[in-house]
Specification:
It is built from 18 helices and no strands. It is an all-alpha fold and 453 residues long.
Length: 453
């Protein structure tokens, strides 16, 4: 299950590093290169709720296997791509199967590990892999692109899929959990709404937040999602039962993970850009530095969050630790020296530790106390919250950084770039601090009982 989670998260970032090489090899224009990234996010984010329902209808283990095989085939097609259209289609297909694979894996985890101690350990390992996945994607992308070629950023998924399939043999199976007809109207509204919002976020940098197209996409997405909520409240067999969100602690978990991803994906973007454009590091050296973040995330999720702790005792301190790491990097100036030891190491360690402490309890709370036939929907909603947060964070914080750099007296210089990065990181710090304040009273309403359930 954790190997599958690694695939889903890793493929959100690994292609970013390989994109310049793929663009040159396939003759992709600058205007079209975004379509090597966007289709994955659109298909993944837009189809997650349907993927959760399909997982329940097939049985979560069967859905897990189908998702794995489909993801592996799509990855192989991406590696074999001989034209831009084939690459873009493979990326979209990866997103389609990721939308089935992610909720199926989390649902299996929730239904397989029910005893308090083993549940904590299982969610710790699962979330640790997920927390480290984005950083691992950047690391692997740099190494594979430089030493094996960009196509191996796709081919590498195939042996991981084979490993996960071998492990799936040992996962207890279950029959179909979903009942009743598919909520077709809800499925269409959720897919169109999430896709519109994610696409709007992905276009914000190039079009600007105030452009007519951007505002229209955002308004359309919000209206579609509001209509989706109205339909779900009235549907006899809703795609996403709204009562899932009425539990205060579960609501706190969704808010926490969304805001965490908003801040962290901006953090990864600026760390990578700062290291390569200001410090002059190679992609490989930049990726290797991110190992600190990945290791810290694993430590936080397995050695700390994997123990028996109340959710509030993990989520709030985790958000504060990540905020502290963001703040350290926001103190950078163009004249800063010994940057790696004094700024990057503590920032990467604190943000990784915070992410590792937040993901396991939020994943556990998102699926705790849910009826078997609704676990898939709750799992899909949790993954959708991460996708929305990542898309919004990348677009919003990048826009802030760009605007701040442009307004600097020495626009175009390294000093202006650093000013842009630190301004955006300060916003990221504020987002995480606000998340801690919001989560504190919500997650405190359910302590150890949430994990035991």
């Amino acid at each position: 299950m954790s190997a599958a989670q690694l695939l889903v998260v890793l493929d959100g970032t690994i292609v970013n590093i390989a994109l310049p090489s793929a663009q040159a090899a396939l003759g992709i224009s600058d205007a079209d290169r975004q379509w090597a990234i966007t289709p994955y996010a659109l298909a993944f984010g837009g189809l997650l709720l349907i993927g959760g329902r399909v997982s329940g209808a097939l049985g979560h283990r069967r859905g897990f296997v189908v998702g794995l095989v489909g993801f592996g085939v799509a990855s192989a097609l991406g590696g074999l791509a001989f034209s831009p259209g084939m690459l873009f289609g493979a990326r979209a297909l990866q997103g389609v199967f990721a939308a089935l694979l992610a909720p199926a894996g989390l649902s299996l985890l929730a239904s397989t590990f029910t005893e308090s101690r083993e549940r904590g350990r299982a969610f710790g390992v699962f979330a640790g892999v997920g927390a480290a996945g984005a950083a691992v994607g950047l690391i692997a992308g740099g190494l594979l692109t430089e030493y094996a070629g960009w196509r191996w950023c796709f081919y590498i998924n195939v042996p991981v899929v084979a490993l996960a399939l071998a492990g799936a043999v040992f996962v207890p199976g279950s029959g179909p959990q979903a009942t009743g007809r598919l909520d077709v109207v809800g499925a269409l509204l959720s897919t169109a709404g999430f896709a519109s919002v994610v696409f709007a976020f992905s276009q914000a940098e190039s079009r600007g937040w105030g452009s007519a197209v951007e505002l229209a996409l955002l308004a359309c997405g919000v209206l579609l999602l509001v209509a989706f909520v109205v339909v779900e409240l009235r549907a006899s067999h809703p795609l996403l039962p709204i009562h899932v969100f009425r539990d205060r602690a579960r609501g706190g978990a969704f808010i926490s993970i969304t805001l965490m991803f908003v801040a962290m994906f901006g953090f990864y973007l600026f760390t990578s850009y700062y290291a390569q454009t200001v410090l002059g590091w190679s992609p490989v050296r930049t990726g290797l530095a991110l190992i600190i973040n990945a290791v810290a995330a694993l430590v936080g999720s397995t050695l700390i969050a994997g123990k028996r702790h109340a959710p509030a005792a993990l989520i709030v301190p985790g958000l504060i630790a990540a905020a502290a790491g963001m703040f350290v990097l926001a103190l950078l100036t163009p004249e800063s020296t010994n940057v790696f030891a004094l700024y990057l190491v503590p920032a990467l360690a604190l943000t990784g530790l915070g992410l590792g402490c937040v993901m396991p309890p939020t994943a556990s709370l998102a699926t705790a106390g849910i009826a078997d036939h609704e676990v898939g929907a709750a799992s899909a909603a949790y993954n959708a919250a991460q996708q929305i947060g990542a898309a919004l964070g990348t677009a919003l914080l990048n826009s802030i950084a760009t605007s701040a750099a442009a307004s600097h007296p020495d626009a175009g210089s390294h000093a202006a770039s650093v000013h842009g990065y630190t301004t955006a990181l300060t916003f990221g710090f504020g987002i995480l601090a606000a998340a801690a304040l919001i989560a504190a009273p919500l997650t405190a309403s359910r302590s150890r009982a949430a994990v035991r359930s």
